[in-house]
Design a protein that fits this description.
The protein is mainly alpha-helical and 197 residues long. It folds into two domains: 96 residues, no CATH class; 46 residues. Helices cover 97% and strands 0% of the residues. The protein has three helices and no strands. The longest helix has 137 residues. The protein is rod-shaped. 0% of the residues are buried. The model has no long low-confidence stretch (mean pLDDT 78).
C-alpha cells in the first residue's frame, strides 16, 4: 500500500513538473518556429503532447482505472442493494395481497356463519312462538271447556233445586202426606243421581 502511495505521489510530482515545464517548451518552440519553420514547431508540440499523454497514462492511468473500477463496483453494489430491496418490496406486496385475499375469505366465512346463526335463531324463536301459541290455544280450549262444564253443572244444580222445590210444592198441594214423602224421596234420588253424572 505504501509503495502504491509513493508511486502515486511520484506520478503527481512528475505530472506537475511536466505541466510547469510545458510552457517553456512551447516558448522554445515559438522561437524555433520563427527561425526554422512550421514542421519543427509541430514536431515539438507533438513530442510535448506525447510526453504529457505518456506521463498521464503511466502514472495517472492506474489511479483513473482504479477510480472507475471502484465507482463501477459501488454502482454495481448499489444496484444489487436496490434490486434486493425491490425484490423484498415485491415479496411484501405479494404477501400483503395474499393476506388481504385470506382476510376477505375469512370475512366471507364469518358473514356466512353469522347469517346461518341468525337464521337458526330466527327459526328457533319462530318454532318457540308457534309452540307457545299452540299451548295457549290448547290451554284456552281446556279452560273454556272447564268453564262451560262448570257452568253447565251449576245450571243443572239450580234447575234440580228449582225443580225439587216446584215438585215439592206441587206434591204438597195435590197428594197426601204419605204419597208426597215417597214421591219426593224418589224424585230427590233421581235428581241426585243426575247431578252426579
Amino acid at each position: 500500500m505504501n509503495l502504491r502511495k509513493s508511486r502515486f505521489s511520484a506520478a503527481v510530482t512528475i505530472a506537475i513538473l511536466a505541466i510547469v515545464s510545458a510552457p517553456s517548451f512551447a516558448l522554445a518552440a515559438e522561437e524555433e518556429h520563427a527561425a526554422s519553420g512550421t514542421w519543427f514547431g509541430t514536431l515539438i508540440y507533438a513530442i510535448n503532447f506525447a510526453l504529457f499523454a505518456g506521463i498521464l497514462i503511466k502514472y495517472g492511468g492506474p489511479a483513473i482505472r482504479g477510480f472507475f473500477r471502484d465507482r463501477a463496483g459501488g454502482i454495481r453494489s448499489q444496484l444489487d442493494r436496490l434490486n434486493s430491496a425491490l425484490q423484498e418490496a415485491q415479496d411484501l406486496a405479494n404477501r400483503a395481497a395474499a393476506r388481504m385475499a385470506k382476510l376477505e375469505e375469512e370475512v366471507a366465512e364469518i358473514k356466512a356463519e353469522i347469517e346461518n346463526e341468525a337464521t337458526f335463531s330466527v327459526n328457533r324463536i319462530r318454532e318457540g312462538a308457534r309452540i307457545t301459541a299452540e299451548r295457549i290455544r290448547r290451554d284456552t280450549e281446556l279452560t273454556s271447556a272447564a268453564n262451560v262444564d262448570a257452568a253447565q253443572r251449576r245450571v243443572r244444580e239450580r234447575l234440580a233445586a228449582t225443580a225439587a222445590n216446584l215438585a215439592r210444592d206441587l206434591i204438597a198441594n195435590t197428594f197426601e202426606t204419605s204419597d208426597q214423602s215417597r214421591l219426593i224421596d224418589g224424585f230427590m234420588d233421581k235428581l241426585r243421581h243426575e247431578a252426579v253424572q
